[in-house]
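Long-time lurker. I teach an intro course on protein structure, and each term I like to show students one example going from raw sequence to a predicted 3D structure in token notation. This year I'd like something fresh instead of my usual example. Would anyone be willing to generate the tokens for the chain below so I can use it in lecture? Attribution to the forum is fine with me.
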Amino acid sequence: MSTPVMELSGISKRFGAVQALNEVDLQVASGEVVALLGDNGAGKSTLVKAIAGVSPADSGTVTWDGRPVTISKPGDAQRLGIATIYQDLALCDNLDIVANLFLGAERTVLGTLDELEMERRARALLDSLSVQLPSLRVPVASLSGGQRQIVAIARSLLGDPRVVMLDEPTAALGVAQTAQVLDLIERLRDQGLGVLLISHNMADVRAVADRAAVLRLGRNAGDFPVQETSYEEIVAAITGAADNPVTRRTGHVSVSGTEEA
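-- Reply from a regular --
Happy to contribute to a lecture. Here you go:
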């Protein structure tokens, strides 16, 4: 793995009596897709919110390009070059694709929206991602789930991020739409971005991820090169079976119900 663009060390977060994260470490390098895995309550969402500055960590160190940085609010993460696409996508259904891409960052000329420049930049961005959409001027409400996800990802790229975090991007998508999104994730990696993919879908993880970082009960439970690690080994880390003496002795892992892992 190349030098990490983002490195977390000893990240901890407590909510009252609940220790949501306990000394968590994580690295993401440029041109790498890291899958963040874990069962419900493992701390995945808390870690993402800490990185995004939505719910800052109580302690720990964040290093960016080898230098310590502080992320205490979303603006700090954005200025560093961290983009986060949450499950709700935060798109405006009544606006077209161009308006959604530039929402909050509209281009103006003499106080008037520069529609032509925004459309030109939107088309150039989507072309660079090899993305085909029906029209840049159709309302987002008319798009499929996969197309909406692509618009949300494309919007995050307008800020020239270096790390993109995707929260369950294929959770509600069909087979064809999932393939579209996974293809886009690979293109982001090919363009040199670091991608942190939060997913429950092991098929998606094996399709695009270079490494799988597993959390369990708010702690690190393993970091695996995906292509060199079996499905069962990753599931064992997610479920805690890897800590079971019987599992360690026999090498047998039950994978029933792992779609929820």
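Some talking points for your students: The chain is about 35% helix and 25% strand. Residues 34 and 156 are 18 Å apart (CA to CA).
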